[in-house]
């Protein structure tokens, strides 16, 4: 057993339910690798877990942390692919906000030499989510137009960057203070607090794909701006966690989304996306993103960086309207 410091959600609720405590971690088991965590992030999934609204989640006390980058400290029996000191990334789902973590070797991805680990950790969850929704779900092509709710968030910003790399036109919503920066990145931004974007998109002939992380209330509006052949991709359902409002049960939300497919004559489709590290595409997609970052074809914005001890402040920052990009947690650097 080794002594570690880690974040614990002590009970479901607001940021006060987060604590940084001491704990123990066992040696890695069969097929596992123990990693000294350098960086993790605070994402919508972590906030949902804190509030107790993440689907099929563990009960408290639990340690969140959906993605990590760190260095191999030791290998468990049967683990031979990585050497001690190798830098790796992992979609961990739980336990990433801790000094050490044990993870199955088969889910680890080597971080290339020369890649900033602080930027690499932002790719593991948010950017792979965006990449897979664009290329494996919506199959967005050059010349098409997409609409993104929350262009300034971690996934929203990644959708913008990756779609522009692929030659697509990007519209979306964001706080007005962020519009100049988003225009500079090639987006057509709209104020999220009004519905001007609906009429504008319909007047311009609609869009080929909408990426909607808000949920139940916005699905009808998103569907209304799709052109024939378009697709609405729901994910995240983070609006209640951004506004600290009541979260609807997930089943009715999904039923509402998928019920739209019964109108097959419309030529429109809907689906819901959830990232899985066991997917055959996960590792090659993350490796592709590492290559894009190394070759300067994408830039990864960082909204804020916090130490592990400041985890409550990091969660408060997630719900703030300041800045764009991913919230990084420095664990051991």
Count every beta strand, where a strand is a DSSP E run of 2 or more residues.
Answer: 15
Share of helix, binned: 25-40%
The CATH class of the largest domain turns out to be Alpha Beta
Regions with pLDDT < 50 over 5+ consecutive residues? 239-245
Q: Please identify the structural class as seen in this structure.
A: alpha/beta
CATH superfamily of the largest domain: NAD(P)-binding Rossmann-like Domain
Name the overall outline. globular
- Share of β-strand residues: 25-35%
Note the run of SSEs as H and E. Answer: EEEHEEEEHEHEHEHEHEHHEHEHE
CATH topology of the largest domain: Rossmann fold
Give the biggest beta sheet. 7 strands, mixed
Radius of gyration: 20 Å
The termini sit apart by 22 Å
Q: What is the quaternary state of this protein?
A: single chain
Task: Examine the secondary-structure arrangement and name the CATH architecture of the largest domain.
Answer: 3-Layer(aba) Sandwich
Number of domains: 2
Helix count?
10
- Write down the overall mean pLDDT: 91
List the helices and strands and how they pair.
Layout: E1 2-9, E2 18-25, E3 32-42, H1 44-51, E4 67-75, E5 87-91, E6 100-104, E7 108-110, H2 117-137, E8 145-148, H3 154-165, E9 169-174, H4 179-184, E10 187-191, H5 196-203, E11 207-212, H6 216-224, E12 226-234, H7 239-243, H8 250-259, E13 269-272, H9 282-294, E14 302-307, H10 311-318, E15 326-330
Parallel strand pairs: 8-9, 8-11, 9-10, 11-12, 12-13, 14-15
Antiparallel strand pairs: 1-2, 3-4, 3-6, 3-15, 4-5, 5-7
Helix pairs in contact: 2-3, 2-9
